[in-house]
Design a protein that fits this description.
alpha/beta, 5-stranded mixed beta sheet, 5-stranded mixed barrel, 43 helices, about 10% strand, YqgF/RNaseH-like_dom_sf
Length: about 1050
């Protein structure tokens, strides 16, 4: 009886069993195990799955969509084809021509089959699309699934062989199915196992599987970028998901042929997703302090200097794109902009490349030789020499009487000039010659200029020889461009600007010979066999291009590269020095006497209270005949104001003033006070004393006395006082006049903003000058805040900043985290007594101006918020409160040991990442919240930095001997070394060759010089030059 219930004759049954045995012998993987009784369709469907494990190489010659149709038609036709298949011994000879004929004959009989199987198939396809989603989550390769099919699939294969009275058509259908079901067999097996049995594998399931065959591959391709993001990001909370956004889409307004983010990443060495995030953050007008503190996860935990470097490069790229657009518009108006020229301009990736392409078209300059030759119509001759030299006859271009074409020599010269221009502007040629230079020893040479020598020989010019002596190290100087130091580059540039030195870049002759050979034989080799006179023209063109165009271009390129690198390092040195100078730990709680030393005009004194209020000012003459009388005056002042600290400026008469105070201290002249003194830099004090800010702050004081006040305040609060002075006048760094002034100013202003913001300012007591350096604020907004404070009283909380005129949502977001509102006693009293009036005044004033202001002010609370005295940003207040409730703390416990213990126990138990996930925030934000909640009241990040050195004795330069070990403080760091104050009146120099990594702490070895102002060091005296007043030192170690 066949699968449809028809009883077969005996001989037919015997023949069928013989066919079955032979097929089972050929199929070595079949197992005679029956799990359950299945229909013909079911067993027939599982049969190809067994074959798929061993027959993956079957040819897929038919479209996938036809396979399910043939399966559906073949199943009902298996009713009576058995009789015609008794001649089936020819099955092994199945060939492609025979296979399609028999299914075609049986197709008309397919509809005769009862439609009973179709209702069975109809409900099953809807069930199948759901299970395939389960295998995607499971991990396992297709090979493992195929191996699992060997045992399980073989059972169904035997079922299919037993139930089907095999015919040529059914075998044909199986082969067709085989090529399409192979990719899906593993999915079917996984699905069946997930369902708990084989019943989920009906024949109709292959149609949905075939339709969803590519889904696992799409999922794999979708998951692939996440692996790449894990490689490029070490920060778990970074946002690499923004990486797929192309830089071209981000900077499409630039209208250039390169990708903005890719170019930025190449120049800075920062991952593309970080560059994209930084670019987006800057586009949204975020400041560097805000980004570094509150958006760490987006910038992969970069520091402020690294973000500033990316910002500078980004600005350079935008400037390049803007300049390119300007040039394109200019050339378009002049009618000389061609499609090729426009593409060449858009391909430029540096300013040097852009200048090189635009140089021949600059307005106001005379036309280049190539342009004049092109105007004569010789460009076609030059192109013919390269493309078809056998057809070129230069005598046909000769036009007697025409300038530039009158003779054959003039025509040849014009062709040479055009070819030289073509060669010099070719990108591949420029790349090749630069690679040749990189492999050679290119030297930078400087010597005394002829102008300086002539000036030296003339009478009456006695100043010039001294200037030449300043540059005696570079009067006959030669160095490889790859090894030259940054300070050497800046010194040579300064000498060249003063017309004392002549600078030259020497490129070896080997570069020229290799370049000419490559041009003639490879890049610019003519097509065909040119005549000797034409090859001579090409050789002349290559040599002319190298000597007249490429050599000056390479020299300018090397000089620009060296200068740019030296300026960048010099500015970076300025930034590091300024940061360390601004972050010197303040000396609080002391009455200080500031002294501006002098001889003829006396020493200016200023006694300052612990809060920097001026208590007394005077002028004393310590270095005259009345020194004893002045000493009594000093003693009276210091005892009267309980002043035991003296701050002396390091200007004129500093050494003598220091000796005077040291002598009085050694004789215990100020008893019962224990007096000490320190030396501080007074750089910029004179400039500040006559500035409008000083006049506004101290209108009744003499400018000389203002400088004494400034010197004293530099020790009490260095940051608050030094921000009043232009950073270039603070006396840090070197070659400040030899670098780009705009870049220097931007970098120094940025580091001032960074230091002020990270330290934080008390909005109710800070000066307007200090306030304008907070991130998000400027001169106008700081003035508005000061006016609001004077009119309405002190701020109760950060939310009241929203009421200040000109302070919008973005400005508030940028500055709020860096502003502190401390709960002072007078502030609380004012809040209790006049808080209601202040709130009413704040609300009534806007009410007169507009309705919108009234609504905004009415929504702002007037009660103090303890979180306003921390570094936590208002956008994280809700998370901070949730965290406090999670650990069992309260806002009133902020800064106390019990809250710190609860927080540490919770973090140790659950982990920072788990807590952050619970609170729906990032680990970086949670860590910032923890720091803000556990830091004690009045916490200052500067307390970990160095303080001023106070001393009671003095050592003179004559006491120094070679080999003596001393301790000192770094006063200034330069590109060639560090100057150290060792207390002898002269700073000693530690040359950079003595600052080696083994002498430095581990956290300072990554920096270029590793020493900065304010650091304590232990040094050894190497040499003392009393005549020139120079002291050479060797670094022993950095003191912590």
């Amino acid at each position: 009886m066949d699968s449809c219930g028809t009883k077969l004759p005996g001989r037919s049954r015997g023949w069928a069993r013989g066919i079955l045995q032979r097929r089972m012998q050929r199929r070595t993987r079949t197992v005679k195990v029956y799990t359950e009784k299945t229909t013909d369709g079911d067993s027939d469907e599982f049969s190809p799955h067994t074959q798929s494990a061993s027959e993956d190489e079957i040819e897929e010659w038919q479209p996938e969509s036809k396979a399910p149709k043939r399966q559906q038609k073949a199943q009902p036709s298996e009713k009576k084809p058995v009789v015609k298949r008794q001649a089936k011994p020819k099955e092994p000879k199945e060939s492609k021509p025979k296979a399609p004929r028999k299914p075609v004959e049986r197709k008309p009989r397919a509809p005769r089959a009862p439609k009973a199987p179709k209702p069975l198939k109809a409900p099953k396809p809807p069930k199948e699309p759901k299970p395939p989603k389960v295998p995607r989550a499971t991990k396992g390769g297709k090979k493992q699934q195929a191996l699992l099919e060997e045992g399980a699939g073989g059972v169904n294969q035997t079922n299919s062989i037993c139930d089907a009275a095999e015919s040529q058509q059914s075998a044909r259908v199986k082969k067709e199915r085989l090529s399409f079901i192979v990719p899906d067999g593993s999915c079917n097996n996984n699905m069946s196992r997930a369902g708990g049995g084989w019943s989920e594998g009906p024949s109709s399931s292959h149609q949905p599987y075939g339709g969803k065959k590519e889904e696992p591959e799409e999922d794999f391709a979708f998951d692939e970028p996440s692996l790449k993001r894990q490689k490029t990001s070490s920060a778990p909370q970074g946002r690499p998901t923004r990486l797929p956004t192309s830089g071209r889409a981000f900077g499409e307004d630039l209208n250039m042929n390169w990708d903005l983010i890719q170019l930025l990443s190449e120049r800075t060495g920062v991952d593309q997703w970080v560059c994209l995030n930084i670019s987006q953050l800057f586009k949204e007008e975020n400041t560097i302090p805000f980004i570094v503190r509150y958006r760490k996860e987006m910038i992969n935990h970069m520091d402020a200097d690294a973000v500033r470097d990316v910002q500078l490069v980004l600005e350079e790229i935008y400037a390049l794109a803007k300049k390119t657009q300007t040039i394109s518009q200019t050339l378009k108006k002049e009618g000389v902009l061609t499609a090729e020229l426009e593409q060449a301009l858009r391909n430029c990736r540096t300013a040097d490349e852009l200048d090189h392409v635009y140089a021949p078209y600059k307005k106001g300059s005379k036309l280049s030789k190539a342009c004049r030759a092109r105007q004569l119509g010789l460009e076609s001759a030059a192109q013919a020499l390269l493309q078809s030299p056998y057809t070129l006859d230069l005598r046909a271009w000769v036009k007697p009487g025409s300038e530039g074409l009158s003779t054959l020599e003039e025509v040849s010269t014009g062709v040479v000039q055009i070819l030289a221009d073509i060669i010099a502007k070719d990108g591949e040629t420029l790349t090749h010659i630069r690679s040749l230079c990189d492999k050679s020893m290119v030297m930078l040479q400087s010597s005394v200029s002829r102008t300086a020598l002539k000036e030296q020989q003339k009478e009456g010019h006695q100043g010039k020889p001294k200037d030449i002596d300043k540059f005696h190290l570079y009067c006959d100087f030669t160095c490889n461009v790859q090894h030259i130091q940054h300070h050497q580059t800046l010194a040579i540039n300064r000498g060249e600007n003063l017309k004392i030195l002549t600078v030259k870049v020497n490129i070896p002759d080997r570069v020229k010979s290799d370049f000419c050979r490559w041009c003639l034989n490879v890049r610019w080799r003519p097509k065909g066999y040119p005549r000797e006179e034409l090859m001579k023209i090409l050789r002349d063109a290559v040599e002319d291009s190298y000597k007249r165009l490429l050599l000056p271009l390479l020299s300018r390129s090397y000089r620009a590269k060296l200068t740019g690198s030296a300026e960048k390092e010099s500015i970076a040195m300025f930034v590091r020095n300024l940061r360390q100078r601004l972050l010197v730990c303040p000396v609080r709680g002391r009455v200080i006497m500031g002294v501006d030393p002098g001889f003829r005009h006396g020493c200016k004194l200023a006694v300052l209270s612990p809060t920097s209020q001026i208590l007394f000012t005077d002028v004393v003459y310590l270095h005259g005949s009345g020194g004893n009388r002045e000493a009594d005056k000093l003693r009276h002042l210091m005892i009267r104001y309980s002043c035991n600290t003296v701050v002396i400026g390091n200007g004129t008469a500093c050494r003598e003033t220091e000796a005077f105070f040291a002598d009085l201290i050694s004789r215990r002249f100020f008893q019962p006070l224990d007096v000490s003194y320190c030396i501080t830099s007074e750089a910029g004090a004179s400039i500040y004393s006559v500035s409008p800010a000083a006049v506004k702050e101290m209108p009744d004081l003499d400018p000389n006395l203002r400088s004494a006040v400034s010197i004293g305040r530099r020790v009490q609060d260095p940051l608050a006082e030094l921000v009043k002075i232009d950073p270039k006048h603070i006396g840090i760094g070197t070659y400040q006049h030899d670098v780009s002034q705009s870049s220097l100013k931007a970098a120094l202003d940025g580091v001032v903003q960074e230091c002020v913001s990270f330290v934080g300012v008390d909005i109710n007591i800070c000066s307007e000058t200090l306030m304008r350096h907070v991130a998000g604020l400027n001169t106008g907004r700081a003035k508005s805040i000061a006016e609001w404070r004077e009119t309405n009283g002190p701020f109760m909380n950060r939310d009241q900043l929203r009421l200040v005129k000109g302070l919008g949502p973005k400005s508030y977001q940028q500055c709020a985290g860096f502003i502190r509102i401390n709960p002072l006693d007078h502030l609380n009293n004012h809040s209790d007594a006049a808080g209601g009036n202040s709130a009413q005044a704040a609300q009534e004033k806007p009410a007169a101006k507009g309705k919108g202001k009234t609504k905004a002010s009415a929504a702002v609370p007037t009660l103090p918020n303890p979180l306003d005295q921390t570094c936590i940003h208002p956008e994280s207040y809700a998370v901070a409160r949730s965290f406090l409730s999670l650990v069992g703390g309260s806002v009133d416990q902020m800064g106390r040991p019990e809250l710190r213990q609860c927080v540490e126990a919770s973090v140790k138990c659950q982990g920072l990442e788990a807590l952050a996930e619970t609170l729906n925030t990032t680990p970086d934000t949670l860590q910032l919240i923890i720091d803000g909640l556990t830091q004690p009241p009045g916490f200052d990040i500067r307390q970990d930095f160095e303080k001023a050195d106070f001393k009671r004795g003095i050592v003179s330069m004559s006491d120094l001997r070679e080999g003596v070990v001393l301790t000192g403080r770094v006063e200034n760091a330069t590109l060639f070394g560090a100057f150290v104050d060792i207390g002898v009146g002269r700073n000693g120099l530690i040359h950079k060759k003595y600052i080696t990594p083994d002498k430095l702490p581990a956290d300072q070895r990554r920096r270029s010089l590793a020493l900065g102002p304010g650091e304590k060091v232990e040094v050894r005296v190497l040499n003392v030059d009393h005549q020139r007043g120079r002291i050479g030192l060797d670094l022993i170690r950095v003191l912590r």
